[in-house]
Amino acid sequence: MTELIRTELDADGVLVATIDMADRTMNVFSAGLMDALDALMDRVDRDPAVKSCVVTSGKPSFLAGADLVMVRGYCDAATTASHAQMFEMCGRLGRQFVRLEASAKPWVAAVNGLALGGGLELALACRTRIASDDPRLQLGVPEVRWGLLPGAGGTQRLPRVVGVETALNMIVGGEPVKSELLFAQPGQKLFDRLIDGDLVEGAAAFAVEKADEHAKGGPLPLVRHLKATHPNPDAYFQFARNTVKAMAKHFPAPVRCVDCVEQSVKAVGIEDGLTFERDTFLALMGTAESKALRHAFFGERAASKIADVPDDTPQRTIAKVAVIGAGTMGGGIAMNFLNAGLPVTILEMKPDALERGVATIRKNYEAQVRKGKLKPDKLDGRMALLKTTLAYDDIKDADLVIEAVFEEMGVKETVFRTLDGVMKPGAILASNTSTLDLNKIAAFTGRPQDVVGMHFFSPANVMKLLEVVRGEKTAKDVLATVMAIARKIRKTAVVSGVCDGFIGNRMIEQYSRQATFLLEEGCTPAQVDRAIEKFGFAMGPFRMGDLAGNDIGWAIRKRRYVEKPHLRYSKTADLLCEMGRFGQKSGAGWYDYASGRRDAIPSAVVVKMIEDHRKALGITPRKIGDDEIVHRLVYALVNEGARLLDEGIASKASDIDMVYLTGYGFPLWRGGPMCYADRQGLYNVVQAMRKFAANPLDDAAFWQPAPLLAKLAAEGKSFT
Ligand SMILES: NC(=O)c1ccc[n+]([C@@H]2O[C@H](COP(=O)([O-])OP(=O)(O)OC[C@H]3O[C@@H](n4cnc5c(N)ncnc54)[C@H](O)[C@@H]3O)[C@@H](O)[C@H]2O)c1
Predict the structure, then answer these.
(1) How far is the C-alpha of 117 from the C-alpha of 175, rounded, in Å?
(2) Could you confirm whether 213 is annotated as catalytic?
(3) What is the residue with the minimal CA distance to atom 21 of ligand 1?
(4) Which residue's C-alpha comes closest to atom 3 of ligand 1?
(5) Which residues sit with their C-beta closer than 6 Å to ligand 1?
(6) How far is C-alpha 25 from the geometric centre of its chain's CA atoms?
(7) Per residue in 95-153, pLDDT tens?
(8) Among 349, 329, 573, residue whose Cα is nearest residue 430
(9) Per-residue pLDDT tens for 419-453?
(10) Does residue 121 carry a catalytic annotation?
(11) What span, in angstroms and rounded, lies between the C-alpha atoms of 429 and 444?
């Protein structure tokens, strides 16, 4: 037997097989474990001394499903491999479980902890299952999160033991469920027994019982022999299909999960259902949506790794946090740490600013309580962790201080010089600046190695993205600590080098430039927004400008006109600001807004302003199709993304995608701008850019392909 499964045969003929993969924190179905399972089944079938087999785990969890790296390999092959090859690779686990069911000896799954995907499917193929009587034990089938479904019998066997509706909710939702909820189901057949004491001992005794019963001619139960039923299947499955279609419009997998579970009820026999499940699984593997979800999954993991900061880099302890500035960002930033149970002290210049800031935090928590998202006692607990002060002396012991004061270098300088004077040695000094040079900020202190950017996005307590800005002198242990704290506050952290706008805003500036060129050539703001929102962006560039405040972009452009006079900008956005139309905050922007409302109403005044501007430039408007709008906006992102990679500001294309998926509302099912460009083919992207460059009303310099993009396109390669 291989070392992945330890076996021990007891005096009663019970073979206890303990899965324990030495190099993993959790057991997963790798090719090696599948080999080991084959060998175990051979032994159980052939060795007359073995009367029954108990399968359990040597880890705190039972089995966490398939090895994701292996599945990724299979999925990537799905685009090139034949159906037969894919069937051979991906169907193996399902075939193993069918073989397990056919064993003439009782197999008992002793589920000691978390069982996910293939782990749960293994238990369902055993003749009986017992579990630790532990309310924290969780079970789940998370494959839908990858745009897939449980493909080793889960959609056929799970409904037979927990009921059709519970099974479908688990399969479509993908979230693990506490086992106590499943135990409480009337008539559940998932577990034959719950064991309070030693699980393996209990399982062995149960296995002896089953083997004895069988020896006396008793039947060996199998999940496949149970029936999955529903009192009104046609109406139920139609309802389920409509619901998941509405909830997951762009993803095919949830609807296909419904189709498969329907087969558990309607197929003539389980074999037909299993075949249907396997074919559906194979078809889903090749979909663009599944590929995008896998890309995002691995992109998130990859973003947390920094090439020259090894996993074992020592970290600094973060037990106390301070935030400077209780404005829009400071309050939201503080909430992240309060939510994670860390005490926070907010420092302000004036008492009224502090009061306003704290009142906003409380209001946000109260809104969560009203919506049932937070228990009232948790609100009190979180507010109790919050302190306020006007004196730096009160924050000198903080391990991490995050500055979120006005975006002016002079103000930042005062704050960082003061922090340098008062903070304890080793404290991490972070800035939330969006545009200022972090290296300059670090140079205001005598400890630039302790200075780092933590660029949160608004609203900071909601948005997933955190750009971690690595200064020239930022120490590795500071980076390692900040990446770890980002995980603790549940952010997706992406490292960016120092440049104007970092990754996200530097790219969005090019996208916004293109959006205004489109206005000059013939579009209205609503037309541009509609096209890109149809593509899947949460919000088009003009609605976004109105939300963020058009004056922010105006200030940046004024700076650019001086710093980079050769860059072409459309004047349309400046004209808008000259009209005082700063967006929602001034009640008017690219759109009109009814008092107290956020609905964007197309504005005749703005359309006229754009038309007048066109006339002044002597431009005859033309009709521009959605495809052109989308490609000009998205390829503007892609080209700037390629420049960021060239310059080493972003270290991986997937980091750029994570920034756009988690911070800028890029459609998840398209995987991010770089993944999207790869799917289009970089050669085609460059060809489209050449066409845009030839448009005299566009900007030929803008569309000069970044060196990396040109190189990859010429070599027939991709970013990711
Ligand atoms: N608003 C956003 O969407 C956003 C997003 C990302 C980053 N940022 C950055 O976050 C920072 C803060 O932005 P904001 O939108 O929260 O601004 P804000 O104007 O809402 O808040 C700034 C707060 O800082 C306080 N303050 C100013 N000088 C101070 C000092 N010397 N000591 C203590 N407190 C001081 C002010 O009283 C105010 O309450 C800026 O650097 C900004 O670029 C903002």
Answers:
(1) 11
(2) no
(3) 327
(4) 458
(5) 324-330, 347-349, 353, 404-407, 411, 414-415, 432-434, 456-458
(6) 22
(7) 999 999 999 999 999 999 999 999 999 999 999 999 998 888 999 999 999 999 999 99
(8) 329
(9) 999 999 999 999 999 999 999 999 999 999 999 99
(10) yes
(11) 11
